[in-house]
Amino acid sequence: MKLKPFELERYFAKYEFSVKYLLSSSDCDGLAAKDLLELADSETRKMWENLKLGYTESLGLPQLRQEIAKLYQGINEEDILIVAPEEGIFITMNTLLGEEDHIICTFPGYQSLYEIAESLGCEVTKWQPSEEDNWRLDPAFLESNIKSNTRLIIMNFPHNPTGSLASKEDYLRIVDIAKQNNIYLFSDEMYKFLELNPKDRLPSAVELYDKAITLFGMSKTFGMAGTRIGWVITKDKKLYSEMAAFKDYTTICSSAPSEILSLIALRAKDTIIQKHLKRINRNLGLLDDFFKKYSNLFSWVRPKAGTICFPKLLFDKSSFDFCEDVVKEAGIMVLPSTVYDYDDKHFRIGFGRENMPEALQEFESYVYKKLT
């Protein structure tokens, strides 16, 4: 296996901790440890105070897996494997795929969702959305691109980087297509519970299909990327056993403090998520005003969920050059679509951070001075 550089992560590595403003982050504002510990119940407070920094259970802290199971219908702790989110993708792809396999993956997207498969020698078909149709991913594409060796369909809702969300009709059709063709279905659900309208929330793929694998975690929705805690879930016992064994070659086990902090957060999930959603809605209102004001320079499809959107440049400049100019002249990082290998006319904005209004104001100052 030889992996290509992870373009998005390499771009973040250049600027993430050196620029004044990040206007492209995909997570919610990071929780302060002090604030999180104040939400602990008596059991988790005791667990935290008596914590020993030794090895942890490879499958994950039992109480954490039990709490995660409560997020789903028909799932129990034996279906859940605690991983770092990126690790979950790596383990699943390496366990499930071989060089004769074909996969279909939503695109643009998080590079490891398709890059790992490519590095394993798989044939990859990229499933692209229609910007003109609110970034819709048409399930009919799947039906016309499934082959005899199609092993896996990979989907991501809410979608990174567009913020789109499949309709329930489309989503159920995707699951049905996988079922009818006896194909595994990997569902990246890292932005779950950040739907702007809760009525749009989709069921988890593992609630609908025994050959589904779901990925979720603490990074985006909970603002706890630093814990590096996520999970993969599947009802396929053979696959689960193989993934658990593969973890012996990656992290072996998770961080003991991170598991308890994640347990505290999950038990206080309503409080945490509502605070994040309030911030998201405030920030989206500011973006509504910005894109209305500068509609001659940018177009955008308003996201339905998550913390990111994918505007388009309407002037004659590449997105890479535009983003490089913004970061060098204004100290603001926005993310060019070239890191997704998609095109050179879009860029990603994140709106989950507390200082986003200040960052957007500085961005508008740059736009006004340089582009009007």
TrEMBL record:
<dbReference type="InterPro" id="IPR015422">
    <property type="entry name" value="PyrdxlP-dep_Trfase_small"/>
</dbReference>
<keyword id="KW-0808">Transferase</keyword>
<dbReference type="InterPro" id="IPR015424">
    <property type="entry name" value="PyrdxlP-dep_Trfase"/>
</dbReference>
<protein>
    <recommendedName>
        <fullName>Aminotransferase</fullName>
        <ecNumber>2.6.1.-</ecNumber>
    </recommendedName>
</protein>
<feature type="domain" description="Aminotransferase class I/classII large">
    <location>
        <begin position="22"/>
        <end position="360"/>
    </location>
</feature>
<comment type="similarity">
    <text>Belongs to the class-I pyridoxal-phosphate-dependent aminotransferase family.</text>
</comment>
<dbReference type="GO" id="GO:0030170">
    <property type="term" value="F:pyridoxal phosphate binding"/>
</dbReference>
<dbReference type="InterPro" id="IPR015421">
    <property type="entry name" value="PyrdxlP-dep_Trfase_major"/>
</dbReference>
<dbReference type="Pfam" id="PF00155">
    <property type="entry name" value="Aminotran_1_2"/>
</dbReference>
<keyword id="KW-0032">Aminotransferase</keyword>
<dbReference type="GO" id="GO:0008483">
    <property type="term" value="F:transaminase activity"/>
</dbReference>
<dbReference type="InterPro" id="IPR004839">
    <property type="entry name" value="Aminotransferase_I/II_large"/>
</dbReference>
<dbReference type="InterPro" id="IPR004838">
    <property type="entry name" value="NHTrfase_class1_PyrdxlP-BS"/>
</dbReference>
